[in-house]
Amino acid sequence: MRKWIAWPAMLWLICLTGMLAQEKKAPTPPAKLVFAAKTGNVTFDHALHAKREKNDCKVCHPALWPQDAKAPLNWKANMHKTAEAAKTSCGSCHRAGGTAFESKGNCTTKCHVKAAAKK
Ligand code: HEC
Ligand code: HEC
Fold it and tell me: Looking at the domain assignment, is residue 15 inside a domain?
């Protein structure tokens, strides 16, 4: 009699722990993302950006972007001035007085590097 109670309970437990483990698993982050731009494609080193934030995904996801490379960046408008002023998108860090270099004066030196398009 006991067996009949124990077995379904065990199976249920295995199922449940499996489901929980699945849910906790974060999606594999990309190493690099290339953002197409007429002024020269931009290579975004995702691995390096994550590492600099001590792998705290929450710094960027989902507050700034969903974990989806097809989602809009909301960064392009008005030569980045809109996002920089609003401290959103890349401009939450990349702006005057931010934690990283602003776009002004760094267009082709840091971001729109033509060679990056070949990667
Ligand atoms: C500095 C900001 C930043 C941090 C920190 C960050 N990401 Fe991202 N991630 C991005 C950006 C930007 C995109 C592209 C979003 C877009 O195109 O709209 C992205 C996209 C992704 C994607 C989608 C890739 C694809 O091909 O669709 C995944 C998955 C992802 N990130 C996982 C992670 C994980 C896991 C972590 C934590 C270890 C993390 N990210 C930390 C900025 C960040
Ligand atoms: C959480 C803050 C943060 C966000 C958000 C962020 N960056 Fe950065 N980024 C940094 C830091 C910090 C550096 C390195 C310090 C510096 O060079 O000023 C950096 C450096 C870079 C570099 C130089 C290469 C490298 O990785 O060292 C590029 C290009 C760059 N970022 C592009 C972007 C783009 C494009 C976005 C938006 C899709 C973005 N970043 C969003 C913090 C950020």
Answer: no
Smallest Cα–Cα separation from 80: which of 49, 101, 63, 53? 101
**Domains contained in the chain, number:** 1
Q: pTM (2 decimals)?
A: 0.86
Q: Which residues line ligand 1 (CB under 6 A)?
A: 26-27, 29-30, 33, 44, 46, 49-50, 53, 55, 57, 59-61, 65, 67-69, 71, 73
Q: Is residue 107 within 8 Å of residue 39, measured between CB atoms?
A: yes
How many angstroms separate the CA atoms of 75 and 90, rounded?
A: 7
pLDDT tens for 43-94 read 999 999 999 999 999 999 999 999 999 999 999 999 999 999 999 999 999 9
